[in-house]
Amino acid sequence: MPHPLADAFRATMRRWASGVTVVTAQDGTRRAGMTVSAFFSVTMEPPTVVVSLHEGAETLAHLRRSGAFAVSVLAEGMDAVSGRFAGYGLAPGADRFEGVRTETHATGTPVLADAAAWMDCRVSALHVVGTHVLVLGEVVATAARDDARPLVYADRAYRRLQS
Questions:
Q1: pLDDT digits (tens, 9 = 90+) for 130-141
Q2: Which of 54, 74, 152, 159 is surrounded by the most beta carbons within 10 Å?
């Protein structure tokens, strides 16, 4: 049974604009990735981020086994990539990475090569909260493109930042 505030909470959170990320993990030769907006930095010393992943997510299973994950901050124009990693229009079991350029860095976890920025992380803690797991990761490698602006999502649509 849904929480009595679920619909009101969902409508409220639609007013929160956020960047769009793809969180990836690799366990041996098997890789998984998903679109995630619940992401933020925690501390600079050591550089640490947190992502919130559904308990049943394949990406979470891979990162639990591998102890690593990556966060790719999507750039403007990557709407289709966001939808792909959210599973829109894909058959069950389809490869979300098909046609998406990736590269690897410190942990060997794939990052999206065309992203505005990326962080390669080692898992430092997992905290179960309701239906989700908060994954804290120490950033072990990172880079950002000076020529890219982030993809923004608010009120169920992609938005552009204005200068």
A1: 999 999 999 999
A2: 74
